[in-house]
Amino acid sequence: MKLLLWIVVLSLRSPAGSCGSAGVVFTKHPSNQTVSQGNEVRLGCAVEGVTEPEITWMKDGEKLYSTDQVFLTLGEQHWETSHSVKSVQQQDAGQYWCEVEFHGLTFSSERAWITVEGVPHFTQEPQDVAMFAGTPFNLTCAAVGPPEPVEVLWWLGGVQEGEPGPSPSILHVPGVNSSIKFYCEAKNARGVSVSRTGTAHIKVLPEAPVSLQIVGMVDNNVTLSWKPGFTGHSELSTCIVQVSRRSARRWDLPQREVQVPPHLHTLTGLRSHANYSTRVSCVNEVGASPFSPWLHFHTPEAGKTVPSAAPRNLTFDLSEQHLSLKWAELQVDELQGRLLAYKVQWTVGGEAQEPLLFKENSAHLSGGGRFFNASFQVAACTAVGCGPWSSPVLLLPPSAQVRVPRSHMWVGLLLGLLVATIVGLLLAVVAQRRGKEMQFGSAFKSPGAETSVSFTAARSFSRNVTDLQESTCELDGLCINDELKNKLKDVLISERLLTLGHMLGKGEFGSVREAFLKTEDSSVQKVAVKVLKSDITSSGDIEQCLKEAAYMKDFHHPNVIQLIGVSLHRRPGQRLPIPMVVLPFMKHGDLHTFLLLSRLGDEPFDLSLHTLVRFMLDISQGMEYLSSKNIIHRDLAARNCMLNEDMTVCVADFGLSKKIYSGDYYRQGSVSKLPVKWIALESLADNVYTTQSDVWAFGVTMWEIMTRGQTPYPGVENSEIYEFLIKGERLKKPADCRDDIYEIMHSCWSPVPKCRPSFQQLVGQLEALWVSLLPASPQKEPLFYVNLEGDDGEHGGGARAPGPEEAAAASNWGVPWQRQVEHEEKDWLIGSGAAFAIGGDYRYIIGPCGASEEEAGGRWSTDTLQEEARDEDDDDDVVINV
Predict the structure, then answer these.
(1) pLDDT tens-place string over residues 525-546
(2) Smallest Cα–Cα separation from 592: which of 210, 199, 299, 872?
(3) Strands (E), 327-437
(4) Per-residue confidence band for 68, with pLDDT thresholds at 50, 70 and 90
(5) What's residue 303's pLDDT?
(6) What is the biggest distance separating any 2 CA atoms in the chain, rounded to whole angstroms?
(7) Could you tell me the pLDDT band of residue 452, with boundaries at 50, 70 and 90?
(8) Helical H runs in 636-720?
(9) DSSP state of 295
(10) Where are the domains of the chain?
(11) Is residue 635 flagged as an active site residue?
(12) Between 819 and 387, the higher pLDDT residue
């Protein structure tokens, strides 16, 4: 009978996985306990029949991760563990039990309750209210023990209202004429608790909207966004948008009424290449707010129309030392758009030379002697393309421009031809002596101090033949096998094809420089080159770098920066070259600097929660791809994520040999410098890196994004991080961070690696969260990101049109961060969408004063911002013995 009863008990408990099956038996269960607030409580649990079990404590259905959990051996397969709370608070009250896994089954102990006695705990506190003056309203307050009973007393405007009453309590207020404060007190046998202080507001008119800006411009459709001002303690129902067109006289268009939220509106049917002004007012229950200040903008040119006329009156002033050109500006109706540049084409001996680009209607070039007998033409260029060429003008030497009598015309012509022949021969001899070998040919060097910009191609370019042979020859003497040489055909780039520009950044690994890469079709691609430090000790180091480069070259994912190639920089007198890693140029830099700009820049800007979650989703998708390729990043952080042209985040610094190429690591003997605040607990303890340790770093990166670039663990020294984490401490929830976002990042910091989510799971969670944050009425048309500056500011399209989902998200983008780069002198054309339409050699863009842009100065550098944020970043790394 007892045996039958035991079988029945097992059959009833097996579905819950409690005990008994497969010899697993709980010999001790947690017991119900009632304790006073602030005291210690301990629960015990023992299991028999399992070798070295992993016993997990549960509370209200959720796992508890305890760092002070102790296992005691009671027998060969008999184990006991406990869970303790040193100072019990109300949030510790609940139902507890322990679980153990065995052969794929989960067994649970009996469940026990912890009841916390203390001062009353509020289950409902009084909330702020808003009403019209004199309107009655009710306030509610509720609190519970134990112990019971609980009484509630109300205070209104600092005065006690009535006598204490049982909880819950409702206070009826007949009405007030001005704002007033209120709160409630809850009392039991243990003491008194005071609720939050609420405010009863009087509804008033809203204030004018703020931050009115252009967030998208496609053809003649302009998308506006704004932020509501003070709402007057009443929800806004609609906003009124007024638009006027500014021409010879002002045209006021019909105003539009927009339902809010979202605070977005698209203006349609506007004229091309016209000036407009707009302002917004918002309405609540009381009435309409004042209007915001006028926002002025200019619509782009429409269609595919290039300038209709060529520049006129091309004149020149030529001497042996200088050439000055000047021509008349085109009228607005002739341009049919916004002027980007004047393109100057010149021909010598019937052979067209590389065109030059000028921002003004004049040009000043040094070395005028090389332009003798050259023919010049000028065309105007807009974002659509370039218009017709002006009539050719032949530049004769000064001696040939002297008027001679008609009777001696033939003699003059013969003398002119003779002089031209002699001058040509002299120039050829001088050019042969003074010619300077460059990457693609010879550039004539003038005798003066000024740099000439003439360029003559020496031969055609083909990566498949000559340059490939030269690139492969660069490997000779490095003891690299033939199989690897074959794999490097599409990876190794000849140093001759790279033109290095100014420095973009500098770190422990070396420096990052802007560069231009000559491609197969003879066009020029803007790239970023990481020039590694010159501490290479063997050919084996370079071989390892090239092996991983050949492997990474096949990576293709929109959220993973794609390696273009690797070049080897030969050093005079050195046997081993320095590797140079060629990567796509990321216009908006790294994510950490971008986040710091949003808080600490000269023009701080807001980033919506939808935008921040998009950043997280981009990184998780890139890391999911890398983990599927069995790549362990080891150094995932905001500083190693880049922002491309359309503000998509790409994971970078993910694979070249950590000994040679690593953005935030360096090795010195047996000591490694590591960014410990991003490293997982098990990696700090055992120097073991897995995909799960990358998940830990991703959680820290999420925290960086939510705090707009703050340094993790503020106030905790690097040397204290391990002890801080082993005690169960983690990064605190950032201000204004939603609970569901913090839960995702906190799950990445489980002390048990296998309990952390995979990147595939993180992508699913963040994708669902991102979709839930999409605006209620997504835009139907794709949006281009534009740059606007008042009436006369330049504007240009982004690099591509976002997809449907991105179009909905595009309304979150502003343009403050683009202004700091777009208006720098160096990138006035390269960064625009018109570069392909205009053509030309962009290494030789000429400014108004004749100096090349490389001479004129570099682009804005992150050094200033890095110096500004040094206090936040100084403790990223610490030296640890390994």
Answers:
(1) 888 888 776 655 566 667 767 7
(2) 872
(3) 341-348, 351-352, 356-358, 362-366, 374-381, 393-395, 436-437
(4) low
(5) 58
(6) 142
(7) very low
(8) 681-686, 691-706
(9) E
(10) 2-117, 121-202, 479-584, 594-652+675-773
(11) yes
(12) 387
**What are the phi and psi torsion angles at 163 (to 5°)?**
-105, 165
795-812 b/e with 16+ CB inside 10 Å = b? bbbbeebbeeebbbbbbb
CB within 8 A of 116, min separation 6: which ones? 34, 35, 36, 37, 88, 89, 90, 92, 93, 146
Closest CA to 638 of 677, 601, 666: 677
**Quick one: which of 644, 761, 649 has its CA closest to 636?**
649
- Work out the burial of residue 744: count CB atoms within 10 Å of its CB; fewer than 13 is exposed, 13-18 middle, 19 or more buried: buried
Among 815, 862, 821, residue whose Cα is nearest residue 600: 862
Q: Which fold has domain 121-202?
A: Immunoglobulin-like (2.60.40)
Q: Which CATH superfamily is domain 594-652+675-773 in?
A: Transferase(Phosphotransferase) domain 1 (1.10.510.10)
Catalytic: which of 618, 635, 875, 877?
Answer: 635
CA distance 200 to 482: 81
Question: To which CATH superfamily is domain 2-117 assigned?
Answer: Immunoglobulins (2.60.40.10)
What average pLDDT does the structure give for the chain? 75
* Residue of 830, 808, 601, 607 lying closest to 704 (CA atoms): 607
Tokens of 33: 């306990």
Instruction: Tell me the residue length of the chain.
Output: 882
DSSP 492: B
If DSSP codes are grouped into helix, strand and coil, which group holds residue 429? helix
Distance, CA of 193 to CA of 118 (rounded, Å): 10
Query: What is the Cα–Cα distance from 606 to 812, expressed in whole angstroms?
Result: 9
Reported as a single tens digit per residue, the pLDDT across 630-641 is 888 888 999 889
Look at residue 537 in the predicted model and tell me its pLDDT.
Answer: 53
- Give the fold, CATH level 3, of 479-584: Phosphorylase Kinase; domain 1 (3.30.200)
Q: How many CB atoms sit inside 10 A of residue 119's CB?
A: 18
CA distance 65 to 355: 68
Query: Cα(796)–Cα(67) distance, rounded to whole angstroms?
Result: 55
Domains 2-117 and 594-652+675-773 fall in the same CATH topology: no
